[in-house]
Structure formats: C-alpha cells, structure tokens
From TrEMBL:
It comes from the Bacteria. This is DUF4177 domain-containing protein. It holds the Pfam family DUF4177. InterPro entries: YjzH-like. The lineage of its organism: Bacteria, Pseudomonadati, Pseudomonadota, Gammaproteobacteria, Lysobacterales.
Amino acid sequence: MSKRWNHKVIEVPYKLFAEKLNDRVQQELDKMGAQGWELVSVTSSHDYSLRLFFKREA
C-alpha cells in the first residue's frame, strides 16, 4: 500500500525593511520541521517571494 501525504505551501515575501530573508526562511524551516514537515522544494515567484513546499506522512 502506498503512503499518503499531507502537503503545505508557505510564502516568505521579500521585505525591504524586515530582518534578513535567510533568517526568516530559517525560522520557517525550524518551525515546520518541529511539526514533522519535510521540505521538498523551493521556488521564487514573480511577486517577490519564496515558496517553500513541504510534505509529511498523513
């Protein structure tokens, strides 16, 4: 029997006066990892943000 997965997409926008993008992405990765989510892909969107794609077993 194949595994079932839950999926989640999080957008991290580029912000001119916010903390560094690397720090904000690291915070999201740590938060999602603590909840059992695994990062599977990252893309840059045309609206100036990063999209983080996660999965975890259902």
